[in-house]
Amino acid sequence: MTKDEFDRHFTRFMDRVKTTRDSGQKEYAQQEDEVFADFIWEADTIGNTPLEVMYTFLLKHIRGVGSYIQGHKSQRESVHGRLEDICVYISLMDAYITESAEVKEVNPKPKKFTRKELNLNKMNV
């Protein structure tokens, strides 16, 4: 593969990553004013942090890629989809860490969201 071919592949791949992220936002967070809503809810439910939840989901996809590399080809999700999800979780984690650092500079206590603020009542949870 030449550099030009890779550049085209990379652009298509990142377009798929953005599509995956956008559809995940609609499906899980179901709102645009808090992209971390689902992770905050999950973290609160199981007693972890949103970052730990994201990391757990990231590792699930990394294990799936590992299974693919070891020869397990029939998975519920294609290896391409898992690679896209890995990029999404890494970017979400980066954004969360960045936002957390910015918030801590202004307010050392993290904000606790209510179910209403996270629109969880609309999600029937």
Put simply, the count of helices is 4
Beta-strand segment tally:
0
Report the C-alpha radius of gyration, rounded. Answer: 17 Å
Proportion of residues in β-strands = under 5%
Can you give the mean pLDDT?
Answer: 83
The end-to-end span amounts to 48 Å
Query: What summary fits the major beta sheet?
Result: none
Measured as a percent range, the helix fraction is 55-70%
How many domains would you count in the coordinates? 1
- The ordered string of helix (H) and strand (E) elements is HHHH
> Structural class of the helices, strands and pairings?
mainly alpha
Low-confidence stretches: none
Shape: globular
Care to give the gist of this entry?
It contains four helices and no strands. It is mainly α and 125 residues long.
Describe the protein in words.
This protein is an all-alpha fold. It has one domain. The protein has four helices and no strands. Helix 3 packs antiparallel against helix 4. The longest helix has 28 residues, at 79-106. The radius of gyration is 17 Å and the shape is globular. The chain starts with a helix and ends in a 19-residue tail after the last helix. The model has no long low-confidence stretch (mean pLDDT 83).
SSE map:
Elements: H1 3-29, H2 37-46, H3 50-69, H4 79-106
Helix pairs in contact: 1-4, 2-3, 3-4
Features of this protein?
0% strand; 125 residues; mainly alpha; 68% helix
